[in-house]
Amino acid sequence: MVRGDPSAGYRQILNLAVPAFLSLIAEPLFLVADSAVVGHLGTEELAGLGVASAALTTFTGLFVFLAYATTATSSRRMGAGDQRGAAQTGVDGLWLSVIIGVLVAVMLVALPVTVAGWFGASGAVAEQAGRYLRITGFGVPAMLATMAVTGVLRGFQDTRTPLVVTVVTFSANLVLNVWFVIGLGWGIQGSAIGTLVCQIAMAVALVSVLRVRTRGFDLSLMPRGITSSLRDGIPLLIRTLALRAALYVTTWVAARSGAITMASYQVTMTIWNLLLMAMDALGIAGQALTGASLGAGDTRRTRSLTATMTRWGLIAGVVVGVLLLAFHQLLPALYTDDPAVHRAVAAGLLVVAAQQIVAGPTFVLDGVLIGAGDGRWLSGAQVVMFLVYLPMVWAVHLWAPSDPAAAVVWLWVAFSGFMVVRCVILTWRAHGDAWMRTGA
């Protein structure tokens, strides 16, 4: 690549972002497939899946630093020419992911209904959520291992391998869900079994790829820096805790508003995750490219890439929002036959569509700062954002209308306020120079 050549920079962003985009939209499609199949079992099953999914994404999402931290560290070392050190980061992250995953799995498998209750579920909804969690809990170590290995592959600027593995396992998940739930009549447990099988298969495939990719590095498969990896990841863990706390309280308020509101919120949140994780592809490119350019000491290129990716994030947000607006009446039919849920989902998607304008730049800037190793600042800033959000969502809890459609709309209005605050604070930080620290 020729330094200063804008077209070369554009190609590099696209080479990372496009495969990451396809991989990321495949990840939430696991949940889309589950929701589409389980939704036809009944409203209680769909609401139970919503609570179980919120629990799984919360407990696994807390440790997304296993991907983010390994991406940032390995890309910096790659930029500085230390390929073996970059690979060792992945090995340490993999061991850490297995240890954490086993601890989380024990809790989910042993106390599934209790965990569902933490997310506001009760009665039949909590029971359905517990059935799903009792099975998928076994897959948590595999989910976290996938995060760690994906992170180091991104640091190697390889987003194609995770894409191939994800597409294959998603396709298998869709087939297994239809077979187990509808064909064999296993209910929500069938959906959980299909997802578990595919998550384990994904982890095995990616670990095998990492082993092959690092065969020539004289790399030890024994952990050497688990403590260091955990210490470096703590700021990102705090940042993620604050972000997940915002999602948790939103889910809690939805669950307290009744089964129809919770089921409707589950569908809109599933679509939100699909859209936002898709646009996060630019954020992942930002992590890898920012780490590499700062590792090589090239601050000018870092600034140029950040501006380009932020602009692309804004454009992507507008395009996605317009598309969602066009299909907001059609999408609910994929998930439910209940007219009340259909109406509430369609209303909520109008707000989700408008929110994409700020969501695109927000995810890009978050990725850039993670790639720069600015975790300490991000942790403090995210806590502030959460504290600002609490009064917004609490107001919805206190004065939410009885109409499920109106309740879902106000939940998304509050959460959109949270996204606006994130966008403003991250933009302010990116305009400064304090985060642009160079070296391996």
UniProtKB/TrEMBL annotation:
<keyword id="KW-1133">Transmembrane helix</keyword>
<feature type="transmembrane region" description="Helical">
    <location>
        <begin position="132"/>
        <end position="156"/>
    </location>
</feature>
<dbReference type="GO" id="GO:0042910">
    <property type="term" value="F:xenobiotic transmembrane transporter activity"/>
</dbReference>
<dbReference type="InterPro" id="IPR048279">
    <property type="entry name" value="MdtK-like"/>
</dbReference>
<dbReference type="Pfam" id="PF01554">
    <property type="entry name" value="MatE"/>
</dbReference>
<dbReference type="GO" id="GO:0005886">
    <property type="term" value="C:plasma membrane"/>
</dbReference>
<feature type="transmembrane region" description="Helical">
    <location>
        <begin position="377"/>
        <end position="399"/>
    </location>
</feature>
<keyword id="KW-1003">Cell membrane</keyword>
<keyword id="KW-0472">Membrane</keyword>
<dbReference type="InterPro" id="IPR044644">
    <property type="entry name" value="DinF-like"/>
</dbReference>
<feature type="transmembrane region" description="Helical">
    <location>
        <begin position="163"/>
        <end position="186"/>
    </location>
</feature>
<feature type="transmembrane region" description="Helical">
    <location>
        <begin position="192"/>
        <end position="212"/>
    </location>
</feature>
<feature type="transmembrane region" description="Helical">
    <location>
        <begin position="309"/>
        <end position="331"/>
    </location>
</feature>
<comment type="similarity">
    <text>Belongs to the multi antimicrobial extrusion (MATE) (TC 2.A.66.1) family.</text>
</comment>
<protein>
    <submittedName>
        <fullName>MATE family efflux transporter</fullName>
    </submittedName>
</protein>
<feature type="transmembrane region" description="Helical">
    <location>
        <begin position="405"/>
        <end position="428"/>
    </location>
</feature>
<keyword id="KW-0813">Transport</keyword>
<feature type="transmembrane region" description="Helical">
    <location>
        <begin position="343"/>
        <end position="365"/>
    </location>
</feature>
<keyword id="KW-0812">Transmembrane</keyword>
<feature type="transmembrane region" description="Helical">
    <location>
        <begin position="233"/>
        <end position="254"/>
    </location>
</feature>
<dbReference type="GO" id="GO:0015297">
    <property type="term" value="F:antiporter activity"/>
</dbReference>
<feature type="transmembrane region" description="Helical">
    <location>
        <begin position="274"/>
        <end position="297"/>
    </location>
</feature>
<feature type="transmembrane region" description="Helical">
    <location>
        <begin position="51"/>
        <end position="73"/>
    </location>
</feature>
<dbReference type="InterPro" id="IPR002528">
    <property type="entry name" value="MATE_fam"/>
</dbReference>
<feature type="transmembrane region" description="Helical">
    <location>
        <begin position="94"/>
        <end position="120"/>
    </location>
</feature>
<feature type="transmembrane region" description="Helical">
    <location>
        <begin position="12"/>
        <end position="31"/>
    </location>
</feature>
